[in-house]
Amino acid sequence: MNFLNEFTLALEKRREKNKLSFFLVNEDVSKIQLEELTKISIPVNVLNMLISLNGLLIREPRSFELLKFSEMKVVNSRYLLFARMNENQNICFDMHKLNSASEWDIVNYENGFVITKTSSSFLTNKIWAWIDRSRTIWMQEFYR
């Protein structure tokens, strides 16, 4: 099973248990539209995530939003703003270069912190760390 299917199943299971409220807009978007926005070729996993989950909005228990295509934007010719957490943390792909996983790093735009290197890690690990456990994944965490 791929990471997009795993994530979608996890969303549905949490909704069934009344632990999650979410909406999926599903605004139609194509590879051509996304590549026109970024002006460069988009890594396959990134492309699949952006097309499949276009417009995902989770309000409870914590705020997370995968932006609709019409709201995504390239910032400073380097970052593709594609998500928000906690309503004020802008999450971007760093389009500067491909990483060791042949994807773009996912970063917090405000502080440059690298959240993760892959879309699959972002969807199957990082989002749930924020939603289920209130972890501030967009900056360095210190444990005692």
Characterization of the model:
The chain has 144 residues and is of the alpha+beta class. It has one domain (3-8, 25-133): SMI1/KNR4-like (3-Layer(aba) Sandwich). It is built from 4 helices and 8 strands; from the N terminus they run αβααβββββββα. The protein has helices at 3-16, 31-38, 44-52, 119-133, and strands at residues 21-24, 56-60, 64-66, 73-75, 79-85, 89-94, 105-108, 114-116. Strands 1, 2, 3, 4, 5, 6, 7 and 8 form an 8-stranded antiparallel sheet that branches. Strand 5 (79-85) and strand 6 (89-94) form a beta hairpin. Helix 1 packs parallel to helix 4 (119-133). It is globular, with a radius of gyration of 14 Å.
Summary of the model, kept short:
The chain is α+β, with helices and mostly antiparallel strands and 144 residues long. The chain contains four helices and eight strands; from the N terminus they run αβααβββββββα.
**Spatial separation of the terminal alpha carbons:** 36 Å
> What CATH architecture label applies?
3-Layer(aba) Sandwich
Provide the helix percentage. Answer: 25-40%
How many β-strand runs?
Answer: 8
Helices and strands: which structural class? Answer: alpha+beta
CATH class: Alpha Beta
Give the number of domains: 1
Classify the beta-strand content into a percent band.
15-25%
Low-confidence stretches: none
Mean pLDDT: 88
Mind telling me the C-alpha Rg? 14 Å
The H/E string reads HEHHEEEEEEEH
Number of helices: 4
What's the shape?
globular
CATH-assigned fold name: SMI1/KNR4-like
- Give the biggest beta sheet: 8 strands, antiparallel
